[in-house]
Amino acid sequence: MPVAAWTTRLLYLARGLLIVWAGFWSWFALVHLAEGLGALPHVAKIVVPLAGVAVLAWTRPFWGGLVLLAGALLTAWYFEHSAARFMLSLPAMLLAVMFVVIARFDSQPEQTLQRGSHQDESEPT
């Protein structure tokens, strides 16, 4: 399997998991707005960084992966309970590894997505 084919699949998978992960934690934070607008600063402290790291990982997989890894290590250090470490840190670490691997093996992931399946169709059989 050519490098572009598996990195494209991994990029789609990583982006899908990123949407699920960031979407879940954003929703979890936004639910606290039901308590009133006094919770808005606390919600913003969660949602804004999540949105920022999601956009960064989406557009720049290497840098987004590094920021995700730093955030995962920070949460693993901050939370003392092993279940909290597992739920908060492990998904971010796995996403970070995926994005860094994508960036390492495919220096232009956006161009790979633009080529998409058109490259496969143009190859002679």
How would you describe the overall organization of this protein?
The protein is mainly α. It has one domain. The chain is 82% helix and 0% strand. It has six helices and no strands. It has helices spanning 3-30, 40-59, 61-78, 82-105, 109-115, 118-122. α2 (40-59) packs antiparallel against α3 and α3 (61-78) packs antiparallel against α4 (82-105). The chain is globular and about 50 Å long.
Shape: globular
Binned, the helix content reads over 70%
Structural class: mainly alpha
List the total number of helices.
Answer: 6
What is the total domain count?
1
Beta-strand proportion? under 5%
Instruction: Compute the separation of the termini in Å.
Output: 15 Å
What is the CA-based Rg, rounded?
17 Å
Largest sheet: none
Q: How many strand segments?
A: 0
Oligomer: single chain
H/E order of the elements? HHHHHH
Mean pLDDT: 82
Which parts are unreliable, with pLDDT below 50 for 5 consecutive residues or more? 117-125
